[in-house]
Specification:
The chain has a domain of about 120 residues. Helix content is about 25%, strand content about 15%. The protein is built from four helices and six strands; from the N terminus they run ββαββααββα. The strands form three sheets. The protein has a two-stranded antiparallel ribbon with strand order 1-2. The protein has a two-stranded antiparallel ribbon with strand order 3-4. Strand 1 and strand 2 form a beta hairpin. Helix 2 runs antiparallel to helix 3. The longest helix has 18 residues. About 15% of the residues are buried.
């Protein structure tokens, strides 16, 4: 597939240009004692508290994420092993989702050129960060790691904007597989 950029530019980081802030998301445990866990979450400033809570409670991986320095190097414990923790930022989630989908697109030969795979990653990252699209389920977010050979379920993007510009600029391509709608609902 050939991907034409609509929102990003080659060589420009899709995460740059978005202003982020830290917020608190309270996750109720559902236990009889009414206990809860507070998570500090990094999200774009324009996101609602509801969007922040959904990200933190439904999409964050809770463990096994390498802790990195601001330069991107692993933080090591006293034994020299990489420290691991849970996700705390929308940047981690978007990179994981877009990276997973790009990985499988590369592996299965979906992209015409390497540049098309990068354009896909950049464009979907921009769309997720700006709430122009979202996966319909966290289940489509199987982490890509060495040795992980499981093919994730193909997520169906939900386009949340209906502005005329969006409808005319993004070609919709049917995804093979079972329809998410019952046959009686199709027009």
């Amino acid at each position: 597939m050939k991907f034409t950029r609509r929102f990003t530019s080659p060589g420009k980081d899709p995460f740059q240009g978005v202003r982020y802030e830290k917020r608190t998301s309270v996750m109720r445990k559902g236990s009889a004692d009414g206990s809860s866990v507070k998570l500090e979450v990094e999200v774009p400033e324009f996101w609602s508290q509801t969007a922040t809570d959904i990200l933190a409670q439904k999409y964050f991986r809770r463990k096994d994420i390498p802790v990195l320095t601001p330069e991107g190097k692993p933080v090591l414990d006293a034994e020299g092993k990489p420290l691991k923790a849970g996700e705390t930022s929308v940047k981690q989630v978007v990179d994981r989702l877009a990276g997973c989908w790009k990985h499988w697109g590369d592996k299965m030969g979906f992209f015409d050129k390497k540049e098309d795979g990068q354009a896909f990653y950049d464009e979907i990252s921009h769309m997720l960060l700006n709430q122009m699209a979202a996966p319909n389920s966290p289940s489509g977010s199987i982490p890509v790691s060495p040795g992980n050979t499981a093919l994730p379920a193909a997520p169906r993007a939900i386009i949340t904007s209906t502005r005329p510009m969006m409808r005319s600029s993004i070609p919709m391509t049917p995804i093979p597989g079972p329809s998410p709608m019952p046959a009686s609902s199709k027009g």
